[in-house]
Amino acid sequence: MTGEGDGLRAVLWDMDGTLVDSEKLWDVSLRELARRLGGELTEDTRAAMVGSALGRTMELMFDSLGLERRPSAMAEAGRWLNARTGELFAEGLPWQPGALEALRLVRESGVRTALVTSTHRALAERALDSIGREYFDITVCGDEVPATKPAPDPYLIAAELLDVPVTHCLAVEDSPTGAASAEAAGCTVLVVPSEIPVPDGPNRVHRDGLAGLTETELHDIWGRPQARNRWSPEDTHSPASVSDR
């Protein structure tokens, strides 16, 4: 991976809840699945599912309903969930406020871009029909990585595929799970919460949403944690520097 060049070099976008208001569609399919399995989805369990990959979502679902985690039953439930959610996606995905404009802004700035989602490839392809593939240089999906969010793998792989040092990437996330993944990888994280609050973190910058985002602000957001993480011998209280990977 090339390490030349300073400043922001790539923006890595989460999808569900960040770019599109798809969590409301997942809410429909998840609650329908819970009823098919003989129960009701609790609010706490639903909140824990935000940003989670399919396998973890099924574990949470079965545990919440008091069902045995039989692999065949969980796999069948996962297939049904993806199929039903795909039907809902096909009806159209509503943009989060300012998301389309932010995608266009980054694309026109020349900064490289990736979509980094926990959603499986088949379903993400349906979403891309609505969002637009032209906004992303590469896409990384939940069924294409060794470990999904909150593990750092999705963001590390995205940076590697883009040939950009991960510390020169800005990840845009809306959930605690996604923010933890991006931060663990070494990205600066722009947090735009949608469904549930996201705690503060050393490499996180919070913003109410994507509406009104400018190119100058984008670079400034990336630079804030970078400035905090620079260390000099005269400042022994500063955290150690974050090196390029």
Question: Separation of termini?
Answer: 8 Å
Task: Record the strand order, biggest sheet.
Answer: 3-2-1-4-5-6
Q: Label the overall shape.
A: globular
CATH fold label of the largest domain: Rossmann fold
Mean pLDDT score, rounded? 88
- What is the class of the largest domain in the CATH system? Alpha Beta
Largest sheet: 6 strands, parallel
Give the helix level as a range of percent. Answer: 40-55%
Cα-atom radius of gyration = 18 Å
Number of helices: 9
CATH architecture of the largest domain: 3-Layer(aba) Sandwich
Spans where pLDDT lies below 50 across 5 or more residues: 230-245
Please give a structural write-up.
The protein has 2 domains: 10-21 and 94-229, HAD superfamily/HAD-like (Rossmann fold, 3-Layer(aba) Sandwich), CATH 3.40.50.1000; 23-90, DNA polymerase, domain 1 (Orthogonal Bundle), CATH 1.10.150. The chain is an alpha/beta fold. The chain has a 6-stranded parallel sheet with strand order 3-2-1-4-5-6, sandwiched between helices. The termini are close together. Helix 1 packs across helix 4, helix 3 packs across helix 4 (71-90) and helix 4 (71-90) packs parallel to helix 6. It has helices at 23-36, 43-49, 54-64, 71-90, 99-109, 121-131, 153-162, 176-185, 215-229, and strands spanning 10-13, 112-116, 138-140, 169-173, 188-191, 204-206.
